[in-house]
C-alpha cells in the first residue's frame, strides 16, 4: 500500500509542477508580447514632434537618443500614408540613408542600440508606411 501512495504523491508533485510551469510560461509570454507591442510607445513616445528640434537634433551630442523621443509621435500622427518623398524630406530634412523606395533617419543610441526611423515609399514616391528599426 505504501508504494502505491508514494507513487501517487510523486505523480501529484509532477502534475503540480507541470501546471505551475505552464502557468509561468503563459504569464511570461503575455508579459513579453505586451512589452513588445508597447515598446515603441514607451521608448520613443515622450515628446511631440517639433520640426526644428528634429532637424537640429541630428548634430546634437548632448543626448545619445537625440531624436528618439519624437519618433513615435512622428510615426503615428505626423507621417500619413500617401505623402510624397519630397514632402517627407522637406519636413524631416536630409535622411541619414536612402535608396530607391526607402530612406532612414538616425534616432541615435536608444536602449543601448542604434535605432532609425525608416520610411517606405511606393513606385509613385508616396509613403506607404514607416518603422522604427534597430541596427
Would you give an account of this structure?
Helix content is 51%, strand content 21%. With 135 residues, the protein is α+β, with helices and mostly antiparallel strands. The N and C termini lie far apart (64 Å). A four-stranded antiparallel sheet has the order 1-2-3-4, covered by helices on one side. The protein has two domains: 1-44; 45-134, Beta-lactamase Inhibitory Protein, Chain:B, domain 1 (2-Layer Sandwich), CATH 3.30.1450.
Brief account:
The chain is of the alpha+beta class and 135 residues long. It has four helices and four strands, in the order H-H-H-H-E-E-E-E. It has two domains: 44 residues; 90 residues, Beta-lactamase Inhibitory Protein, Chain:B, domain 1 (2-Layer Sandwich).
Q: Any key phrases for this structure?
A:
single chain, 135 residues, alpha+beta, Beta-lactamase Inhibitory Protein, Chain:B, domain 1, 2 domains, elongated
Q: What gross morphology would you assign?
A: elongated
Do you know the CATH topology of the largest domain? Beta-lactamase Inhibitory Protein, Chain:B, domain 1
CATH architecture assignment name of the largest domain: 2-Layer Sandwich
- Which oligomeric form is depicted? single chain
Number of helices: 4
Tally of separate domains:
2
* Unreliable parts: none
Give the termini separation: 64 Å
Gyration radius (Cα, Å) is: 24 Å
Describe the protein's topology.
Layout: H1 2-44, H2 51-57, H3 68-78, H4 85-92, E1 97-99, E2 102-110, E3 113-121, E4 127-134
Antiparallel strand pairs: 1-2, 2-3, 3-4
Helix pairs in contact: 1-3
